Amino acid sequence: xxxxxxxxxxxxxxxxxxxxxxxxxxxxxxxxxxxxxxxxxxxxxxxxxxxxxxxxxxxxxxxxxxxxxxxxxxxxxxxxxxxxxxxxxxxxxxxxxxxxxxxxxxxxxxxxxxxxxxxxxxxxxxxxxxxxxxxxxxxxxxxxxxxxxxxxxxxxxxxxxxxxxxxxxxxxxxxxxxxxxxxxxxxxxxxxxxxxxxxxxxxxxxxxxxxxxxxxxxxxxxxxxxxxxxxxxxxxxxxxxxxxxxxxxxxxxxxxxxxxxxxxxxxxxxxxxxxxxxxxxxx
Length: 283
Ligand SMILES: [Zn+2]
Prior knowledge:
single chain; alpha/beta; TIM Barrel; six-stranded parallel β-sheet; two-stranded antiparallel sheet; 12 strands; about 15% strand; disordered N terminus; disordered C terminus; binds zinc ion
């Protein structure tokens, strides 16, 4: 009996091996990630009142340097894309335009309208502007107005959500979390007359709870401050971004643009609450 069992075992393996040659061709290998530099800016202006200390300068780029960065992108043949193009690529695995880059601007500062938008427009580039709706029009001289927002949208810029009041979302209760995500989205949709599908987590702070809440609120992609150029297609609510600071030269910018880790060695930014740091804190 032992001999028979052994021979049957061999036969099964042999048949499987033969059949293997006649199986249908395997499905096209599934793409798991795409490479896309997503640059994160806040203020684009010279240091001055409210923007002078070292901490603040992490969130600023001078207009002169910013223009050099745009010129570099042009000279290198980069294409700026908006969140809709990225969303499509993440959903379908379709390739992005060659040498795609995304330029994002957080917090709705007025200088993003007066300085950034004209510089982008002059070069036929698109920017993504994450605004917290509670501040629009509320800080004359500092924040953008609704007129500014609408003019940029009408001119092809991409306006997306950065919540209503810009809290660190992991610190708020579930009701406030849902409100921050839903109300900013509905306000922008009413003003702009189109679906709002992208979110930037304030301060880059998020945990699994915020990812799920963003999904429930109807966002299709969300942006963190996790650094790196590799975007996972199965994590569309955790898109990586790389901060550009006042200290960055054009050479630094080029490194952040091309190294897969987003030039991590050059980074100096507020640590985010992430899965990793949260896990570390409970250990
Ligand atoms: Zn912000």
